[in-house]
Design a protein that fits this description.
The chain is globular and about 60 Å long. The protein contains 15 helices and no strands. By secondary structure, the chain is an all-alpha fold. The protein has helices at residues 3-74, 78-114, 121-127, 131-146, 167-173, 178-209, 213-232, 239-255, 258-295, 298-307, 311-326, 330-355, 357-383, 389-407, 416-437.
């Protein structure tokens, strides 16, 4: 594993993702002002259905393209490596067209029966033609990730391999692809479908608890469109490395010893916790003023504070899943996520009518804990990894808590927005300085 190349490509993806996420966050802030909480709720309901089709059409093929190219390249078979990517592109386009037609034809039924709001039908119809192109771009993205090329020219190979071959012949000729493609795609299909069902159950569950229809949709919009957006935003600094680790682990699995995989896993998990734990502390201390600044909504900040403890598990799950995919553990990934998705639907149906918003928060926390712990337990069994609790947990918590507690006794700036941004900046700088000032006792990537 080449440390410089990995970090360089990761930073390119981080910067790109940070720009995209920042624009998305600003757009969500604009939407929340223009649409209001109820409008955000309706927007999230329609988007949840669209994401079902997006994930089914693109999630499996991206990982499959990465893994097949990395595996064949590690074995020295360049021809099969390129051929596997081409077949992934053809397959993804055909499946994307089929899903596009299905979404367009069923949009009225979905809007009226599942979402119970006919206003969602037109957006779904307008979005349906994008599915084939998203699917093909996912296959191409997987190829560039396997090549460690993070600055490919835009759309260079998107529509190169159009074909009139029927789906049966495509499946037959792609038999090498199916063991990788099917578990991830089946998981995306099932999980996103269950997620849509869960999202549809949330407003109705809140209504059974006692909220009016308007209030139920509004609170759903606050949690899903505002709080969750702020909760996952910092992960933009983690997710690119979680994607890049898949081909790295796949190649090491073929050509190196298990000890190398264990050391890389230990470093990735440690670095993830060193980032996620301070983020958790900052959200606890500054969640309310931050959401008031971004969304003009104090309630979103309260929910952000309550959900902040799931941040380490949420971010860690992405990294662990990436390592498991590189270790050819797609089936475990499918099983864990399926269990998690089914449990979320069951808990949503049971808890929301009894506990309202507290039930929504409980479902998110239980789900994130269960999914991460199952994946982490599987990784520990496979790699026998060992972590230093001092380095991975105690030090990050202390370096985050000390400045946050200190700033509580300092006078506030007159403008609340400037005050929270200033305090977050000071806390971040303190954490970085302490982190780099401490002497590390464990080897990092430089020793790999």
């Amino acid at each position: 594993m080449q440390k410089k190349r990995f970090i360089k490509n990761g930073m390119i993806l981080v910067i790109t993702s940070l720009l995209i996420r920042s624009m998305g966050l600003l757009f969500r802030s604009f939407l929340s002002e223009q649409l209001g909480a109820e409008g955000m709720g309706l927007y999230q309901l329609a988007l949840s259905v669209y994401m079902v089709f997006v994930l089914v059409s693109s999630s499996g093929v991206s990982m499959c393209s990465t893994r097949l190219f990395a595996d064949y390249s590690a074995a020295g078979d360049r021809g099969k490596a390129i051929g596997s990517v081409q077949k992934c592109m053809v397959f993804s386009f055909v499946s994307g067209v089929m899903l596009s037609i299905l979404l367009y034809a069923s949009s009225d039924v979905i809007a009226e029966c599942l979402l119970q709001d006919s206003r969602a039908s037109l957006p779904l119809k307008l979005l349906s033609p994008s599915l084939p192109f998203l699917a093909v771009s996912a296959a191409v993205r997987g190829y560039f990730l396997a090549r460690r090329k993070t600055l490919p020219t835009s759309g260079e190979q998107l529509l190169e391999q159009l074909s009139e071959i029927c789906i049966f012949i495509l499946l037959f000729s792609l038999h090498r692809m199916l063991p990788l493609y099917l578990p991830v795609t089946a998981n995306a299909c099932l999980r996103s479908g269950l997620s849509a069902a869960e999202n549809a159950l949330i407003p109705s569950g809140l209504q059974k608890f006692g909220f009016t229809t308007r209030d139920a949709i509004s609170r759903y919009g606050i949690i899903s469109g505002m709080t969750m957006t702020a909760l996952v935003f910092p992960s933009v600094l983690i997710l690119p490395f979680a994607m890049l680790i898949v081909p790295e682990i796949a190649e090491i699995r073929v050509s190196s010893s298990p000890k190398t995989i264990r050391r890389i896993s230990e470093v990735m998990i440690t670095r993830t916790l060193q980032f996620a734990l301070p983020v958790t502390v900052w959200m606890m201390f500054f969640g309310i003023p931050l959401c008031k600044l971004l969304f003009k909504n104090e309630e979103a900040g309260i929910y952000l504070m309550l959900l902040s403890p799931v941040v380490p598990f949420m971010y860690l799950d992405s990294v662990v899943d990436g390592i498991l995919k590189g270790l050819n553990e797609q089936t475990s990934y499918f099983v864990f996520n399926t269990i998690d998705s089914i449990l979320r639907v069951i808990l949503t149906a049971l808890l929301l009518p009894l506990f309202g918003i507290a039930g929504v928060i409980a479902v998110i926390i239980i789900s994130e804990l269960l999914n991460t712990l199952m994946s982490l337990a599987r990784l520990i069994r496979l790699t026998k990894l060992r972590l230093s609790l001092t380095e991975a947990v105690l030090l990050p918590l202390m370096t985050a808590l000390i400045p946050c507690l200190t700033l509580q006794i300092c006078p506030c700036l007159p403008h609340q927005g400037a005050d929270v941004l200033c305090k977050l900046t000071l806390c971040s700088v303190f954490c970085v300085l302490i982190h780099f000032g401490l002497k590390k006792t464990k080897p990092s990537f430089a020793a790999l």
